[in-house]
Amino acid sequence: MTTLNELAREHCRPLRGSEHLLDSAQADSLLTCLPDWHVSEAGLLQKNFRFASYAATLLFVNTVAGLAERENHHPDLVVGYGRVTVSYSTHDVGGLSRNDFTCAAKIEALLRI
Amino acid sequence: MTTLNELAREHCRPLRGSEHLLDSAQADSLLTCLPDWHVSEAGLLQKNFRFASYAATLLFVNTVAGLAERENHHPDLVVGYGRVTVSYSTHDVGGLSRNDFTCAAKIEALLRI
């Protein structure tokens, strides 16, 4: 069983091809260590975050963006006043890969600092 | 006829109540000075922007966010790699107000600097 901290310490690897596509059992197993994340109907690894101010919202956006650049794995972000929805998927495998869960775990780890 | 530069020099005002709701003729008239903006099916003033890099994407997000704080009028942003969709509407009037068009014009003016 992978823990949040173990997953957060991994790094994204260049993944290409359907052999890196996670099946739903593998995705469900990794989901158990990611609080309040879910797989959307469209197959995206997703979580809604709330913030007390716009400044805090943008700080989160920029933190996630910095992580995205470092890992070369970029989520979709829907940003409003005090709210951000983060969605990960891996275009090059055609669905969810371990990289998506690694980045989600890194966000959770960052929020605990 | 309002020009882009005239609209961009205005500032958002606190608007509340349906007397500030623009009808579709008023919205269409203001749209003519905003290149590639449109009113979506959901009634949002919207434009899709493309960028050559993630850094340029985030610079735009932060510029729009700074503008949003200064004008106290905050859009919804959908942010991906090299792309941002900006959507404005005015919750307190239940649709589009002049504030939405003012902020859109300010974004256009900023992009011309």
Automatic annotation (TrEMBL), chains A, B:
Its EC number is 4.2.1.96. One of its GO terms (biological process) is tetrahydrobiopterin biosynthetic process. It catalyses: (4aS,6R)-4a-hydroxy-L-erythro-5,6,7,8-tetrahydrobiopterin = (6R)-L-erythro-6,7-dihydrobiopterin + H2O. The keyword Lyase applies. The keyword Lyase applies. It is an enzyme of class 4 (lyase). GO terms for molecular function: 4-alpha-hydroxytetrahydrobiopterin dehydratase activity. CDD domains: PCD_DCoH_subfamily_a. It comes from the Bacteria. Keywords: Lyase. Belongs to the pterin-4-alpha-carbinolamine dehydratase family. This is Putative pterin-4-alpha-carbinolamine dehydratase. The lineage of its organism: Bacteria, Pseudomonadati, Pseudomonadota, Betaproteobacteria, Candidatus Accumulibacter.
